[in-house]
Write a structure and sequence with these properties.
The structure is a single chain. By secondary structure, the chain is of the alpha/beta class. The protein has 21 helices and 20 strands. A hairpin with a 2-residue loop joins strand 11 and strand 12 (500-506). The longest helix has 17 residues, at 260-276. It is globular and about 80 Å long. It starts with a strand and ends with a strand.
Length: 606
């Protein structure tokens, strides 16, 4: 068969790469009838970071999103990205959770499961592949393409053979960072097709400006399925434009048969939609040939830029780019794809923003170095491994083999807040954020983050939403990011104080609106500021974040190096350790608090 078939990623990877996964369902459903009429092989619309963004930012039920998309796209395969044993979270789940998640995803309308493991450790995708086949759905095994001293075509071909033996229905070459070159694509596709009798799909990000050339060489080498994105959400860290590839192949033996005019009409719709999310546009979503050195994937770049901006450190992006390859080498050259991209990226940010490298090591880096994510492609830095893991045992088996069944415990933990098996799985993916979402849903207090209005030329000037405030001799940088409805008797304002997200409840509404008079709303957020850390026994944090757990209480005896707090920054948790041995004195924080560097969080006296 010569005809090339297209998977469009407009409803998932395109907006994940360019606007930090913020597109809402309300902007997808109106265009679904036209998308459904195109004749795509599939539409990628779920998985990846969409589940997290729905719950964390958009306050949408991701399962309801899937059901509504299934109803709106009756003639098109729906496709999702599944992280093997990680599913859609950032840790490995027990096999019973993996099986339940796949079964419920299939039941709610998913057709194609693109299943990968961030380390290409195929032990970690076997359960998900088997569960997909048991559900009667299409299991697409995935090769995460990367470049390093330990990765080559022979290794990828060996992986393809193992995927075929596992029972996969097709194989995807996932070039998440846009590292493929045209000639490398030709060699890899030919080698894989010679080794296995399965369809090959090419997924290549456009970051380095080579995606269209890679697609053409793949097609000439025998690939008949390519991933593209509607042009208004294409290019840069996203993908090759659908319209461009359809036009390029028209009238050839590879003609897609798709209606270019109809796709262009859809493109104009999304052109208007994209303006709505202008606040999430990144300065780092154009062609960037530096990816051939730093290997940062498309979805990671826009999210990394967004996270650095929240830390008031966007000007240090180039330093982070330089640090990422060094961290990747220390961790044994993992491909940079979720969750390893977040693990490496966050540690690189911490290394840049703190006084010295690995002064603070995230829990996820520790778990990775212990073998908790699987087998690293190459040997890790032994000094770093010893620093992070200490005397704890290194995991050699499949990590999930050490996990007991979890579903019953998860049901008990979330209790009445879960109104369906799907809700339990939402809680399983993101315990803190998921619980908060489910509690707010029952209470009727779900409020999505506010979208900043599009500024038009000649519009009347309004009061700023970003400003500095001096209170009691201290200066604070405030940015108002959202607000509850004006009609509420008590109105929530969402803001950042020195880059740390916070929330203020305002009872007087007369003169406070989102774009003016907001300075009066910040006093609650900065009242009771913690003292500055000056003594050896002052426990502090190196990065802005939130308190996940307080591990000690006043009067406890602690040893130097003992974990006393767990903080979260950029979705990654870090243990904060006691700087000295002694007695725990005053504790200034509790679970859920926002914290800044150099604040005293706990006092310890020798």
């Amino acid at each position: 068969m010569s005809k090339v078939q297209v998977t469009d990623v407009i409803l998932r990877d395109a907006h994940q790469s360019l606007i930090a996964t913020r597109m809402r369902l309300e902007d997808m459903l109106p265009i679904c009838p036209k998308l459904d009429a195109i004749g795509y092989w599939s539409l990628e619309c779920w998985g990846g970071a969409t589940f997290d963004a729905c719950v964390r930012f958009l306050k949408e039920d991701p399962w309801e999103r899937l059901r509504k998309l299934r109803a709106a796209l009756p003639n098109t395969r729906l496709q999702m990205l599944l992280r093997g044993q990680n599913l859609l979270g950032y840790r490995h789940y027990s096999d019973d959770v993996v099986k339940a998640f796949v079964a419920k995803s299939a039941e709610n309308g998913m057709d194609v499961f693109r299943i990968f493991d961030a380390l290409n450790d195929l032990r970690n995708i076997k359960t998900a592949v088997e569960a997909t086949k048991e559900s009667g759905k299409h299991a697409q095994g995935t090769i995460c393409y990367t470049v390093s001293p330990v990765h080559d075509v022979n290794g990828f071909v060996k992986q393809a053979r193992e995927l075929a033996a596992m029972g996969c229905d097709s194989i995807a070459i996932k070039d998440m960072a846009g590292l493929l070159t045209p000639m490398a694509t030709d060699a890899l596709v030919k080698a894989v097709l010679d080794a296995v009798d399965l369809p090959v799909h090419l997924h290549s990000h456009a970051t380095s400006g080579q995606a269209e050339m890679c697609h053409l060489k793949a097609i000439e080498a025998g690939c008949r399925n390519i991933d593209t994105a509607i042009s208004s959400f294409a290019g840069g860290t996203s993908h090759a434009p659908t319209e461009s590839m359809v036009a390029a192949l028209a009238g050839t033996a590879y003609d897609t048969g798709l209606d270019l005019s109809a796709i262009q009409e859809i493109g104009m719709y999304f052109y208007a939609v994209r303006k709505k999310y202008h606040q999430f546009e990144s300065d780092y979503t154009g062609v960037d040939t530096r990816v051939q050195v730093n290997q940062v994937p498309g979805g990671m770049i826009s999210n990394l830029a967004n996270q650095l901006r929240e830390q008031n450190a966007l000007d240090r992006m180039n330093e982070v780019y330089d640090e990422i390859p060094r961290v990747r080498k220390d961790l044994g050259y993992p491909p940079l794809v979720t969750p390893t991209s977040q693990i490496v990226g966050t540690q690189a940010v911490i290394n840049v923003l703190t006084d010295k490298r690995y002064q603070t090591i995230t829990n996820e880096v520790k778990r990775y170095l212990q073998g908790g994510y699987g087998k690293a492609p190459a040997a890790v830095n032994p000094t770093l491994q010893q620093q992070a893991v200490g005397k704890e045992e290194i995991i050699e088996c499949r990590p999930a083999d050490l996990l007991d069944d979890e579903m019953d415990n998860l049901k008990d933990e979330i209790g009445h807040f879960a109104q369906s098996p799907e809700d339990v799985l939402t809680y399983a993916m993101f315990p803190e954020v998921g619980r908060q979402y489910l509690e707010q849903r029952i209470a009727g207090t779900l409020v999505p983050e506010t979208l900043e209005p599009v500024k038009t030329p000649g519009a009347a000037k309004t009061a700023p939403t970003e400003f500095n405030v001096v209170l009691h001799g201290e200066s604070y940088h405030i940015k108002i990011t959202g607000a509850g409805h004006k009609e509420q008797s008590e109105r929530n304002f969402y803001l950042t104080v020195d880059g740390v997200p916070d929330e203020v409840l305002v009872e007087t509404l007369d003169q406070i609106v989102l774009e003016g008079g907001a300075q009066g709303a910040v006093k609650t957020a900065i009242a009771g500021k913690r003292p500055k850390a000056t003594a050896d026994g002052h426990v502090t944090t190196s990065m802005p974040g939130n308190i996940v757990d307080v591990l000690v209480k006043e009067g406890d005896q602690v040893s130097a190096g003992q974990p006393v707090l767990i903080t979260e920054a950029m979705k990654m948790e870090t243990e904060i350790q006691a700087p000295i041995s002694g007695t725990v004195g005053q504790i200034y924080v509790q679970k859920g608090d926002s914290v800044n560097p150099n604040e005293v969080l706990i006092e310890i006296t020798a």
